[in-house]
Amino acid sequence: MSTHKYTALFESSGTVLAPIVYTMDRWIGKVAIVTGASSGIGATAVKALATAGMDVIGLARRAERVLELKKSVPPEVAHRIHSHRCDVTSEQSIVDAFALIDHQFGGVDVLINNAGVSKLTCTLLTAGNGADLRTVLDTNVMGLVLCSREAFQSMKRRSIDGHIVNINSILGHKYIGFPNLNIYGASKYAVTAITETLRNDLRNEGTRVKVTSISPGIVRTEMVPEGEQFQDTPMLEADDVVGAILYALGTPPHVQVHEVIIKPVGEMN
């Protein structure tokens, strides 16, 4: 049984209408893929979705770390957690991973595009920065697009009304002058545009597949540099972002949460 339920009461002309229940029950026994699943938001999402009753495949270059997650959940949840090594900067690696999941699990119903990277060692003007900048774009932009493509093809073949969730950032909506973010902000602006493009492409395909962008402020993960720079900075926890994922997934089939922006209380930007 799912433990994730949300109820909303709508009022019209002073009359309270029947409640709409937001629940993960429709996804029990279905298959979710989480990219970048070895740590942070991805690892937390793997555990939450498995707890909600889904079979979850965590894709990561460090696939062994996904398997370690089994030790932190009850046995009845652990058996729903699976891992596969995948490098989302490689189209062939993505294609092979989704083909294997189609073969072993029958296809994907939910995709969480979480894999992301920043390279804080250079600016846009640093000499010899090409490889770092390409890694950010290949991971944050092309990896997300190609995973979405493969997930949609799996959903389309099986006539599944699935859901694609893109982990975006507030940096995908406004420029913030943090040092050495170089092309990271541009990559997240791309995710904002891609989410809108996907929504229109999915509609034009005649499907009811949903797409949602989740845009958090700073989240306490391995991507945040250690040291005094962020010592007093309000931060979100991975659980906060995953709560938004569960909310979006739990909406009724006719409801599409298109964008969620989440900031920690006290954030300046």
UniProtKB/TrEMBL annotation:
Pfam families: adh_short. One of its GO terms (molecular function) is oxidoreductase activity, acting on the CH-OH group of donors, NAD or NADP as acceptor. Keywords: Oxidoreductase. The keyword Transferase does not apply. It comes from the Eukaryota. Belongs to the short-chain dehydrogenases/reductases (SDR) family. PANTHER family: DEHYDROGENASE/REDUCTASE SDR FAMILY MEMBER 11, DEHYDROGENASE_REDUCTASE SDR FAMILY MEMBER 11. This is Dehydrogenase. The lineage of its organism: Eukaryota, Metazoa, Ecdysozoa, Arthropoda, Hexapoda.
